[in-house]
Structure formats: C-alpha cells, structure tokens
Amino acid sequence: xxxxxxxxxxxxxxxxxxxxxxxxxxxxxxxxxxxxxxxxxxxxxxxxxxxxxxxxxxxxxxxxxxxxxxxxxxxxxxxxxxxxxxxx
Length: 88
Hints:
Elements: H1 3-9, H2 19-33, H3 39-48, H4 63-84
Helix pairs in contact: 2-3, 3-4
C-alpha cells in the first residue's frame, strides 16, 4: 500500500484504531467472506478463530458480545471525532 493510500484509508478517523480493533476487523471480514450472514454466525466464527474480544481479551464470542464491542468501538470513534475532528 502506498503512503498516500495508507493516509486516505484513515483520513476520517479522529484516532488510530487499536491493534485489538484492527485484529477484530480482520477476523470479522474473514468471517463474512467465509459465509457468516448474521451476528450469531459471525460470533461463532470469531470463537472458532480464537479472535480476542477487544475489551477483555477473552475468545468466547456471542452475538450480544459482538454487538456490545462494535457499539463500544463506534462510540469511542464518535467521541474522538467530536473532540478532535477528522484526521488521525
């Protein structure tokens, strides 16, 4: 990825993603590419892949945990945007 592409990829983030958030995004992408069609299937795939829950480091996922984690990450990103504006 070129330096310009790397900057464009995160141009609207008001804070960098954490390593745990990046790992979750990659694991979720793989789960959906592999056929997960809802949060239950995605949670099962995350558990099977031993993906870590960003907030506590465990590897047991449920649809409720996935929803909670995504809401928490989105809230954190929204708060950073409100405080800092765009551009991490």
